[in-house]
Each structure stands twice: as C-alpha cells, then as structure tokens.
C-alpha cells in the first residue's frame, strides 16, 4: 500500500535496517544463484553498501557463501544463500481440539512436528510452552522466534482481543507464553493471516496481494495488500463472518443475519453423518443428501456474493480457501459451486474470479505462523521452498 503520510523522518539506522531487509530478501529469492554483483544489480544499492551488509549478514549467520561458479572470463562468482544451519523458527497452530507445533530452518524446511489434543476451555498456554521446549531441545541451531496462529482478533501486542466462538477475551497470549518459554520472542497472529503469509512465503512470483477465506467454526479473511499484511486500525480487518447477509438466524456473537449462520463449517455440515456426506458426494437423491446439497448451495451463494464484493473493493481476482473446510470432504463441492457462481459474474474486460485451495493444505497454518515469526524478527517474509509439503515424512519432536 502506498504510504500517504509520514510521521517520522528517516534516520541512518532506519535506512540501514531497510537495506538489510532488501539484501536478505534478494539473497533468499536468488536461491543460491546470486552473487554480490547480482544483489547490487537487483537492489540498486551501491557496491560498498552491499558488501558491508552481506558481511554483516554472514556474521549474524543469516547468509552464507554457498560456493564458487566459474566464469568464462575473470574470477569465479562467489554465490550467496541463506544460512540454514543456525537459526530455527517454531510455528504453532492452536485449533479447535488440538495444538500442532513444527520447527523450521530459515529456508522453510520442516525438521520436526508434533500434534497434541488440547482442552476446549482455554488457549492452553502450558501445553504450547511444553511443545516449544520440546522443539527447542534437539535442534542443532537456536530458536530465534516462535509464531503462534490462533483464531480471533489479535493485536500486534500478542493479545487476543476477542475470539467469539471460543469465549476468549483479552487473553495476553504473547506475553504469558514468552515468559513460559524462557524469554524466547513469541509472535501471535490470526489464523487466516497466517495462511495468507504462507502463500506469500511460498510464492516465487513475488505475489503482492493475497486474500484467504478462512472457514471453520467461524469465518474470517487474511488480507495482504501490496505486500503488506492489512489488519486495520483495531486489528478487525477480515472479520467477514459477521457481515449482515439478511437472514433471520441468530449468530454466536448475538447478532442476527451473520454470514456464519449459513456458511460456517458446522452449519454447512449440519446433522449430516459421514455416511450421509458420502451419499451426497456420490450423487445420492435421498432426503439427507438433498438437505446437505441445499446447505452447500446456500453457503456457496453467499460466499460468491462476498467474494464478488471483495474483488470489486480490493481488485483481487484469486481467492484462497483455508481453514478446516479446505480439508473437509465438502470443501471441493463447495468450491465448485462458488466458482460456477463466480463465472456468471464476470464483467467484460475483467478476469475470471477464482477460489482455490491453499498451497500447503493442513500445514499452511504452522508454516504461516513460522513465516510471521521470521517477518517479525528479520523484517521480511522470506521466499521459501515448499519443503513443508513433505511434512508427513519428518520425525515428531
């Protein structure tokens, strides 16, 4: 987003910090193929500045010299890459009935993962802290930061201001968890925002605008605009589950007519058993299948209307489905129904609107939480390989 007003003058230290981020981002995007000369060309920074910053990043164990490449003329090029031997980041997902924690290297490789069940009446601080300690114990490097993805409205101070469907209000998760984790930097992020960050981190096309539609017990959106995570002045950006769609149904929040009353995962599934869902997916025409089909259709209609509104407001053409519904058997038919409806609302000269699944599926939250921690500690969402796709093969901590 273009910054319209500046309230502070640029200082020598702030300019240096920005240039540090620029060089680190460039090295990460190069994937071991860039030399100092390439970084100079890509960033436009002076040679002396790049040399000084690269030397500092090497000393901080963020960048390493990754070998030499022979040239037809002159000296071999010294290639640069991220140093994945020292810094580790932990991503944590606090979900309905479980907590998942995974440990990542700086370049996004998942080294270990663990999932435990959790009590439903609290964010389970002690359990999260214990998992972080287990993630930290065997690592050859050091834990540089911890990212925790949670539902609800989350401030940049790590406080969960409200999570209506969980009954959480003003939970100081970041500060309390940091104390239990022996002072490790802990950064809390909304779950939909975490999925959006995972999409940015995995994009090799330098995607600048991403909108994630999170559907689970509640509905939210993670919005990245022009490369910046947008959270609004009161951190309520993306609280789309409580927009008024005109129904007479009462929501968990106490209001009438919220989107969640027809499009949240429990509402769509209703009282359908797994057998009823299977019959519906197989094209069954019994009463349960027809009722389920009606709920899917109604949810798809309201979601398509919402996405059309967001597209016209934010100039977005691709949306990503995240959350529990993305892995639910009802996720694909819902997406098909939404995309069929969106196909009917394409103005001449405009691109087709599309709703697709998240890149990492079930791993998007822990990956995005770790990306958030990296962003908070290093100032940038580093472009990382989709190493977490093989997360099923990594050992538990």
From TrEMBL:
<dbReference type="InterPro" id="IPR049874">
    <property type="entry name" value="ROK_cs"/>
</dbReference>
<dbReference type="Pfam" id="PF09339">
    <property type="entry name" value="HTH_IclR"/>
</dbReference>
<dbReference type="InterPro" id="IPR036388">
    <property type="entry name" value="WH-like_DNA-bd_sf"/>
</dbReference>
<dbReference type="InterPro" id="IPR000600">
    <property type="entry name" value="ROK"/>
</dbReference>
<dbReference type="InterPro" id="IPR043129">
    <property type="entry name" value="ATPase_NBD"/>
</dbReference>
<dbReference type="InterPro" id="IPR005471">
    <property type="entry name" value="Tscrpt_reg_IclR_N"/>
</dbReference>
<dbReference type="InterPro" id="IPR036390">
    <property type="entry name" value="WH_DNA-bd_sf"/>
</dbReference>
<dbReference type="Pfam" id="PF00480">
    <property type="entry name" value="ROK"/>
</dbReference>
<comment type="similarity">
    <text>Belongs to the ROK (NagC/XylR) family.</text>
</comment>
<feature type="domain" description="HTH iclR-type">
    <location>
        <begin position="23"/>
        <end position="65"/>
    </location>
</feature>
<protein>
    <submittedName>
        <fullName>ROK family transcriptional regulator</fullName>
    </submittedName>
</protein>
């Amino acid at each position: 987003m273009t910054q319209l007003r500046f309230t502070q003058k640029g200082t020598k230290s702030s300019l240096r910090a920005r240039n540090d981020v620029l060089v680190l981002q460039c090295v990460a995007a190069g994937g071991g193929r860039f030399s100092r000369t390439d970084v100079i060309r890509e960033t436009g920074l002076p040679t002396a500045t790049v040399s000084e910053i690269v030397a500092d990043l090497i000393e901080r164990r963020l960048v390493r010299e990754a070998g030499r490449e022979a040239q037809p003329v002159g000296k071999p090029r010294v290639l640069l890459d991220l140093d994945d031997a020292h810094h580790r980041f932990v991503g944590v997902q606090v979900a309905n009935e479980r907590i998942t924690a995974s440990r990542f290297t700086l370049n996004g490789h998942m080294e270990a993962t663990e999932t435990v069940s959790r009590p439903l009446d609290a964010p389970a601080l002690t359990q999260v802290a214990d998992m972080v300690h287990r993630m930290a114990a065997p690592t050859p490097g050091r834990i540089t930061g911890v990212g925790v993805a949670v539902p609800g409205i989350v401030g940049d101070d790590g406080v969960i201001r409200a999570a209506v469907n969980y009954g959480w209000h003003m939970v100081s998760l970041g500060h309390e968890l940091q104390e239990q984790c022996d002072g490790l930097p802990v950064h809390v992020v909304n779950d939909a925002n975490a999925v959006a960050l995972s999409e940015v981190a995995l994009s090799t096309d330098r995607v600048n605008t991403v909108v994630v539609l999170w559907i689970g017990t509640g509905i939210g959106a993670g919005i990245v605009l022009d490369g910046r995570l947008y959270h609004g002045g009161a951190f309520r950006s993306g609280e789309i589950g409580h927009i008024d769609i005109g129904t007479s149904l009462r929501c968990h929040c106490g209001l009438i007519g919220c989107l969640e009353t027809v499009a949240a995962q429990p509402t769509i599934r209703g009282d359908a058993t797994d057998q009823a869902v299977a019959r519906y997916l197989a094209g069954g025409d019994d009463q349960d299948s027809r009722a389920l089909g009606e709920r899917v259709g109604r949810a798809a209609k309201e979601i398509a209307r919402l996405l059309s509104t967001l597209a016209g407001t934010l100039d977005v053409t691709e949306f990503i489905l995240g959350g529990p519904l993305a892995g639910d058997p009802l996720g694909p038919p819902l997406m098909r129904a939404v995309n069929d409806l969106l196909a009917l609302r394409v103005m001449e000269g405009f691109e087709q609107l599309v709703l697709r699944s998240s890149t990492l599926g079930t791993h998007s939250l822990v990956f995005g939480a770790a990306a958030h921690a990296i962003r908070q500690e290093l100032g940038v969402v580093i472009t990382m390989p989709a190493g977490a796709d093989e997360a099923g093969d990594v050992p538990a901590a």
